[in-house]
Design goal:
The structure is a homodimer. Chain A is built from five helices and no strands. With about 80 residues, chain A is mainly alpha-helical. In chain A, helix 2 packs across helix 3 (about 35-45) and helix 2 packs across helix 4. The first copy, chain A, has one domain: 434 Repressor (Amino-terminal Domain). At the A-B interface, helix 1, helix 4 and helix 5 of A face helix 1, helix 4 and helix 5 of B. Chains A, B: It comes from Paracraurococcus ruber. Chains A, B: Keywords: DNA-binding, Transcription, Transcription regulation. Chains A, B: It holds the Pfam family HTH_3.
């Protein structure tokens, strides 16, 4: 898997873990972040390469800072 | 300033602060991250909305995890 794809799937795992911790469904996160539910699903599957603005919307929807959201990122060293 | 623009300029400040801390010039960061120097300048000025893959390249170029890089982010609660 190329480095870029790997980063996207790692980020997707972080969003899924953080969302699970908050108890939100993908639908609820989509509503809170103003992003389409299917896009959230694509991000969690590592199929999307979101921009900074979208990443900030997801973090806001989770009620996390960006640093907190990325700390759910297993592969690059972080929180379980 | 709209929320998206604000996030980009906040991220730009974080990259500049992190780069200053590592003592790298924009040129050196551009070389290490495989990104064009003028693009790095645009990111630091908050004029760019980089994708996750580009953000990861910048973090790698700085030798930081994403969580560490975003912790240089003043506005959203962080490290000085």
């Amino acid at each position: 898997m190329d480095r870029g794809k790997e980063n996207c799937s790692t980020f997707g795992d972080a969003v899924r873990r953080a969302r699970a911790k908050t108890g939100l469904t993908q639908e609820e996160l989509a509503d809170r972040s103003g992003i389409d539910r299917s896009y959230i699903g694509g991000v969690e599957r590592g199929e999307r390469n979101p921009t900074l603005v979208v990443i900030c919307k997801i973090a806001d929807g989770l009620g996390l800072t960006l640093s907190e959201l990325f700390s759910y990122d297993n592969a690059r060293g972080s929180r379980d």
